[in-house]
Amino acid sequence: MNSKRVTATAIAAVAIVVGACGSSATPAPTTPTLAFIAQMQNPSQAFSWKMYQKNAAKYGFNVINLDNGGDVQKQTAAINNAVTQKVSAIAINPVDEAGYVPATKAAMAAGIVVCLSMVPAADSAKDGSTCSVSVDDILGGKTAAEAIMAAFPNGASGVEIGGQAGHVAANNRHTGFTEGIAGKNITVLDYKNPSAWDTAQAQAIAEDMITKYGDKIQFIFCHWDNGATGVINALKAVNKDWANKVMIIGVDGNKTGFAQVGTWPNYISIAQNAETITSMVMEQSMKWIKKDASAVKANIIPFDIISKDTISKFTAPEW
């Protein structure tokens, strides 16, 4: 027998065994997972989830979705679930401004990047996230104030219907609106928040305000476009000329907002781009995972203003 041939065969066999055991092979890198936690009954968050799925591969992520159900306790359970699943990043649109913080701080201590999606960190929750990507909702409120002042240079009275009570976006939109009209000849007759981003609740609030103030209402600032649908329903039910002339300002720029710009005599939608925001969340989350020096903690996406004069420049989103 040829001893050289036996030796070569033996060496090859050893190499195969070593490779099979993996002791000399470099393991294939795993794709990090990002968990998106939000209230999935909210159309903006349902659409955001579609955008996370659409663009995940571009930014190097697998993505999963955990519904917080609009409840702080369910939100905490969802965050803890994400930690148990050993995700690399959490993108969260929280129920309120600080209820998520204990759970997200624990997630961050476990090495998970936490990025707020569509909302900035409230002052009481600055240490509860790694980063945030949002529009500036204070600026959104000020933009609503500016639109009203431009429409009524001699002053006007109206009402404000806020967003979900305690939600960061609702708090900031109210703050910006209040600051925007401070010292101006604009009177807010009433302000009230629903318990959820719910059209029926917005309509009920509008109906109550219309009963109380009638034609003193020249404008209604509603914190979200779908809520403004309820406002329109309430005004149409009045069946009087003054009601059809009320200026309505909504926030979101969704397909409902676009439709209402076209159909209501004086409607403005202050629009945020969900795809731009979710893409930036993933981009920034990956930078923080990689400890990239260019990572930014607070990222602001500009609003678009949708009115009868500008609507032709934009494409209505799916949500």
Question: Concise description?
Answer:
With 319 residues, the chain is of the alpha/beta class. It has helices spanning 3-21, 43-55, 72-84, 101-109, 137-151, 168-181, 199-213, 225-238, 241-244, 255-263, 274-289; strands spanning 33-38, 62-67, 89-92, 113-117, 131-134, 156-161, 186-192, 219-222, 247-252, 267-271, 298-300, 304-306.
Strand content: 15-25%
* Major sheet: 6 strands, parallel
- H/E element string? HEHEHEHEEHEHEHEHHEHEHEE
Measured between the Cα atoms of the first and last residue, the distance is 76 Å
Please tally the helical runs, counting DSSP H or I stretches of 4 or more residues: 11
* CATH class type of the largest domain: Alpha Beta
- For CATH, the homologous superfamily of the largest domain is named as Response regulator
Which strand order do you get reading across the main beta sheet?
2-1-3-4-5-11
Helix content: 40-55%
Helix vs. strand class:
alpha/beta
Number of domains: 2
- From the spread of the alpha carbons, the general shape counts as elongated
Number of strands: 12
Radius of gyration: 26 Å
Tell me which CATH architecture of the largest domain applies here: 3-Layer(aba) Sandwich
Uncertain runs are 1-27
The CATH topology of the largest domain comes to Rossmann fold
Average pLDDT, rounded to a whole number, is 91
